[in-house]
Design a protein that fits this description.
- This protein is of the alpha/beta class.
- It has a single domain (about 5-130), classed as 2,3-Dihydroxybiphenyl 1,2-Dioxygenase, domain 1 (Roll).
- It has 3 helices and 8 strands; from the N terminus they run βαβββαβαβββ.
- It has a 4-stranded mixed beta sheet with strand order 1-4-3-2, with helices on one face.
- The radius of gyration is 15 Å and the shape is globular.
- The two termini are about 30 Å apart.
């Protein structure tokens, strides 16, 4: 068994796709129509184009998911995390693109991490292993 797909709740396909490709730097892998405006929309890391896909999954019809996202946001808890090679460089690059960070680069044991708002109602952690 292996992980090939994970998802993140979004509020708008096009807004999420733009953010995750133009700002985060992922590339679109799949965009398949599912009917009634629904899509199977995934992005991947350009460093691992055949790696784990991130499904951009709307949560409009799930009040429980909306409640979870609000609680995570309120408590400052990231929905997921992405590893980077150079956290300071990614932080600076994303900050220059207008990304809002709730936590700047912060040492945490064998890592340094930062947390940003993905504009889709999620906090996302980026981290670099330093030890």
């Amino acid at each position: 068994m292996k992980i090939t797909l994970t998802s993140i709740p979004i509020d708008d396909y096009d807004k999420a796709l733009k953010f995750y490709t133009e700002v985060v730097g992922f590339v679109k892998k799949r965009d398949l129509p599912l009917g009634d405006g629904a899509r199977w929309l995934t992005v991947v890391s350009p460093q691992e184009p055949d790696g784990v896909e991130l499904l951009l999954e709307p949560n409009d019809n799930y009040p429980e998911m909306k409640a979870l996202k609000r609680a995570l946001m309120r408590d400052g808890i990231p929905y997921t995390a992405f590893q980077v090679d150079d956290l300071q460089a990614e932080y600076d690059r994303m900050l220059a693109l207008g990304v809002q960070f709730s936590m700047g680069p912060t040492p945490a044991g064998p890592t340094v991490m930062a947390i940003f708002n993905d504009t889709c109602g999620n906090l996302i952690q980026i981290f670099q292993v330093i030890a």
